[in-house]
């Protein structure tokens, strides 16, 4: 069975499928989500930290000091701070690597709290396996120190090389230190005394914002006898904390309110990996599709040519190539408003390659029949 015939059969199966099955599948697409799963309260956000440090204890896989002069400067500076005088001249150690340390500072943390950090090589080190990060201050965007990191790094990859072959897996020049940093300064973030709060949807949508506002107000009328929420735009909802309750208790009371999340019709295509993600609301208008296959076969049949008798010629080999081109065009098939997810499922059942499916989806979009946003990655 050629590819064109497989595509046409898949489309025929889709057209033969009852529309009631499609509607039933789409009716359960939404479900319920909690407020705290689809939105966040303004003021309770992470803050990013960064720092520069040294990883020591490597087994000859650190920076080459000739190519990474900043590593040598950092080593000399560290030893000077420890009261160890270093002689002039180039150092030859390969057991040290310069790294950049990053971390996310969660909201409401207090001094003494431990957070995870990520360590990434800055020089030409080949691996951070077995290394230990020396005490590194972590700064925020305001250049103030908020945490200090130190500890043994944990890598998820390795690299082993010999004179003629190298074997590697993962990225051995990036690592993590679980609970590797201690918070030294807290970021001011408190709900106390704040009677006006803002809810930010992670995926902006007017329908979801209105539904969430109605759900919050319905709960508030039953609990506090008045509405407390007002939709501002597709992402923002304004909240007023009722009297007699703290902002923290108010947030705890509403963050589990269920809401049905709506989403726009969207098709996401990753051409590099052949991945296709189709939303439940994606539909197509009546459209005719025809896709053919092109097969090219090249056969090499070299011939041996003998020289004429009593001549000075030599035996030679002459190249001979046979090229066959065969193109099979399938008939035009008309589809009428079926679910795009059913088309993709039918194509996959018959073994149609993702690249062919992607080509069909792009052609349908160009024809204006795809009633959805097409996102190419």
TrEMBL record:
GO cellular component, one term: outer membrane-bounded periplasmic space
Keyword Oxidoreductase part of the UniProt annotation: no
Stored InterPro entries: Flag_FlgI
GO terms under biological process: bacterial-type flagellum-dependent cell motility
Keywords of the record: Bacterial flagellum, Cell projection, Cilium, Flagellum, Periplasm, Signal
Main location: other
Subunit structure: The basal body constitutes a major portion of the flagellar organelle and consists of four rings (L,P,S, and M) mounted on a central rod.
HAMAP family: FlgI
UniProt function note: Assembles around the rod to form the L-ring and probably protects the motor/basal body from shearing forces during rotation.
Family: Belongs to the FlgI family.
Protein name (record): Flagellar P-ring protein
Biological source species: Notoacmeibacter marinus
């Amino acid at each position: 069975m050629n590819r064109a015939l497989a595509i046409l059969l898949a489309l025929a199966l889709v057209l033969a499928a009852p529309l009631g099955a499609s509607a039933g599948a789409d009716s359960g697409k939404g479900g319920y989500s909690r407020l705290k799963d689809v939105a966040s309260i303004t003021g309770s956000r992470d803050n990013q930290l960064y720092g520069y440090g040294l990883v020591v204890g490597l087994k000859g896989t650190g920076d080459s000091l000739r190519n990474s002069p900043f590593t040598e400067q950092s080593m000399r500076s560290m030893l000077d701070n420890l009261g160890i005088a270093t002689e002039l001249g180039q150092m030859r150690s390969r057991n040290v690597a310069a790294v950049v340390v990053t971390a996310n500072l969660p909201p409401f943390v207090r001094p003494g709290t431990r957070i995870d950090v990520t360590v990434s090589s800055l020089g030409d080190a080949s691996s951070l396996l077995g290394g230990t990060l020396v005490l590194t201050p972590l700064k925020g965007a305001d250049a103030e120190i908020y945490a200090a990191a130190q500890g043994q790094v944990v890598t998820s990859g390795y690299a082993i090389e010999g004179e003629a072959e190298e074997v590697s897996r993962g990225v051995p020049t990036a690592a993590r230190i679980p609970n590797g940093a201690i918070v030294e300064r807290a970021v001011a973030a408190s709900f106390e005394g704040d009677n006006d709060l803002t809810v930010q949807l992670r995926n902006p949508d007017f329908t979801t914002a209105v539904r969430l506002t109605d759900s919050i107000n319905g709960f508030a009328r039953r609990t506090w006898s008045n509405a407390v929420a007002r939709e501002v735009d597709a992402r923002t909802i304004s909240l007023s904390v009722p009297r007699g309750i703290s902002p923290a208790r108010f947030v705890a009371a509403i963050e589990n309110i269920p809401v049905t999340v709506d989403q726009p019709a969207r098709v996401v295509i990753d051409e590099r990996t052949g991945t296709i993600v189709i939303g439940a609301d994606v539909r197509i208008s009546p459209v005719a599709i025809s896709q053919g296959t092109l097969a090219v076969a090249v056969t090499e049949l070299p011939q041996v040519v003998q020289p004429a008798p009593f001549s000075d010629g030599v035996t030679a080999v002459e190249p001979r190539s046979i090229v066959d081109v065969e193109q099979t065009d399938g008939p035009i098939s008309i589809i009428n408003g079926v679910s795009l997810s059913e088309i993709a499922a039918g194509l996959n059942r018959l073994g149609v390659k993702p690249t062919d499916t992607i080509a069909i989806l792009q052609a349908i979009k160009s024809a204006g029949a795809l009633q959805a946003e097409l996102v190419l990655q």
